[in-house]
Structure formats: C-alpha cells, structure tokens
Amino acid sequence: MEQLLHELAALIGPTHVLTDPADTEPHAVDWRGRYHGRPLAVALPGSTAEVAALVALCRDRGIAIVPQGGNTSTCGGATPDGSGRQLVVNLRRLRAVRRLDPDNNSLTVEAGLTLAEVQALAEGAGRLFPLSLASEGSCQIGGNLSTNAGGLAVLRYGTMRELTLGLEVVLPDGQVLDALRGLRKDTSGLDVKQLFIGAEGQLGLITAATLKLFPLPTARATAWVGVDSARTAIAWLAALQAAFGDRLTTFELISEVCQKLLDHHHPGQLPFVAPWALLIELSDSGETAALEERLVNWLSEQAMVDGVMAQSESERQRLWQLREALSETQKRDGPSIKHDIGVPTSMIPAFLEQCGQALKTAFPGVRIVAFGHAGDGNLHYNVSRTRPDPAALFDDEPAVNAIVYEWVDRFGGTLAAEHGVGQLKTPWLERYKDPAALALMRGIKQLLDPRGLMNPGKWLAP
User: Fold this and answer.
1) How far apart are CA 297 and CA 292, in angstroms?
2) Of 52, 59, 219, 264, which sits with the fewest C-beta atoms within 10 Å of its C-beta?
3) Domain named FAD-binding PCMH-type: which ranges (predicted)?
C-alpha cells in the first residue's frame, strides 16, 4: 500500500493525499454518525485529468474507490468500510466554473462547488438555480447529482434529473465521458448521463455538470397556514394548483409534533401551533404586491385554523428558516429512526393515518415526527420513543422499518425518495424493488464496473 500512496502523491501532489487519522476521520463517518469506516487514505484530486489518472491507477491495483462530496449523506452512501483498503476520493477541489451561458439558461460547473455557490452564481447572472436543501451550504453538486436530490422546489422544477442538461463522468476504467452539452433536445441515441444521476457513485465519478437555469422570479408570496387535517392539506394542494398553476413553487406539510419541537427549541419564533401547518410559496415575474394579493384573496375563501403572510423579505426568510431548521431541531431533541419515503400525493393522508396507527399499536407511546414536500409526495417520516430508554431505540429499528416500508409499499410508494439508498436501505431495496429492475441495474454495474471497485458495499453490489 505504501507504493500506491507514493504513486497517488505523484499524480495529485503529496499534500492532497491524506493519511493521518486526524485528517481522514471527518471523511470516515457519515453526517448522522451511524456509519464509521477506516479509509486507506483520502485523495483530493484537483482536475478531471487527475481524477481519471487516479481511477486508472486504482483499477490497475485493484483498489476500491468511495466517491465523496460534502459528506452530507444520511444513508452511509459516501462512507468507506472498516477494512482500511478503500480509497476515499473527495472532489472538493474541483471548483471551476466552466461556462455561464445566461442566453441558454445554463451553467457548467465542476462537482466540488457547493449548492449555495451554484445558486449564487446563477443569481449573479439574473437567473435561478432552483434546487434548495437545508444542507446547501455544505452539500456539493456532485453529491446532489449522485443522489438525484430534490428538495423544496421539486413541485415546480423537478429533481436533479430534470435540472441537468449534461455531465462529465470518469468511468471505472479511467475513461472520461464528455456529455456536457447544453442541449434540451437530443434524440441521437440513449441519454447515457441518466445512468449516473442517482447511482451514488457506483458507476463512475461525476466531475462536472451542465445545469438548467431559469428566469429569476421578481415576485414571491409566502404564507404559513394552519389546517385541521392532512386531508384538508392535500385538498388545498389540488385547489392551489388549479388556481395558480406552476406559480405554486412550494407546498410543505408540517405536523403538530414538528411544530411543538420548533416551538420548544426556537421559542417565540413559531407563528402558532395547528394540527398541520403548511408553508406555501408562489413565485412569478411581475410585482410582489399583486401576487400577494392573489394569494390573500384565495386564502380568505378557505377554512383555516390560522395563518400569516410574509410582509417583507426578512419575514419570508424567517418562515423558511423554521422549515429548514426541522432536521437539525429533531436531531437536537434526540435520536430517531429516519425514513425518507414517498407515496403518491393523493395517498399521503391515508398513509399517515394507517401507518401511524400500526406503529402506535406495535409501540404504545411512540412519537412520529412527520414533515416534508407534500407537493411531490416526499415525506420525512421519523420515529422515536419506541421505548422508555432512548438508548434502546435502534433495537426496534428492524421492526419499525418493516411496518413503515410495508405501508409505503401498499400505497405504491418508495423507500428512498430523496436521500438515496446507501448502506442504510440496501436490505429493504432487495425486498421491495422490482426484481427485473434490480437485475437490469446490476447488469449495467457489471458492464461498467466488472471488478466492483466503485463504491462497493452499497446497493448495486451483487
């Protein structure tokens, strides 16, 4: 291994090959602290050419690679195993802006830029890159692509799959796939870039992407509204879409339990507590006052528990901060068994009712913290307090997961709507994913990576 480290240092520079445990430790544990590994080293290549040379070297030496971006995975998808023989390849030094083309509404960047930096680049050109996540200050574009991230504006703009025009990828044999064209229509064969979006680094390393930009909205109307039930909330969603079309950018659903957590950890900031809260945002061109008036008029005709409209940008930001604080607030409150699930939007109320009842029957006193992107059916469905002793919570994880995923499946849903599969959900994917789809995906893995060196131990492993 010492010879390999020397060769890596010759390729990318000795200061960019980390071997000291103090330097590698942050790269050896996932964001939630559930998965711990021991990498051979952490390599920090600075260009696509260096990534390609590094991958070719590892292929020749039979060394497994674990691609890593901002290391914000919640499923262990970017964590090495404990063997000390897997090389973490972190792409944070790939930071070039290759091309900003406002007339084409496109931006080509390397994979190491954070999502917040890409948003700022777009805004500086009078454009919008609409992907928005709570971790946007630390997650990187490469990781967003590898998990097909969605976030808060999927309802209008779609996931990373819909937001990507082109990719540059280093394949497992060291070849570079150059598919960075900024085209919106191309029928010249299969759209091969789609293979790598959502593959969690198991088919290659994404080094750059051409992303879709949109006109920067000049008007926004934002409201925090309380309703009496999830059924009412979903009925509102359909009515809002009918009234406002694609001006409806965000429709977030927040349970009473979530609101009480926010009120406890952020006292005085929550407008009110209702059975269910909705964060609704419209965006458009034109004047904010006109859009706000339309939303106020619509809301005035609805039955609601309570509601507030943001009267300024600072008030809008405060409402968004409450929504974005949910994950961290829940983490502060104690451990939970997390599920990033999706069901058809129309099924959300029935899922919440029936899955919740099944969990309460199995675990009296259980607490369910449910919130998420109701507009696209993605719920963050988190379970805690299955036992009096919080330390014993994860003893119940298999039984809790069995209940949750069974109800997800009954309602035609998915066990991984936004955060990927990683290590966490692999056994459940085997159970619930269509066998033909799994076989097809593994066939593609075998074709591209026959030695299984790209992010091994995750869900595409044979």
Assistant:
1) 9
2) 264
3) 35-216
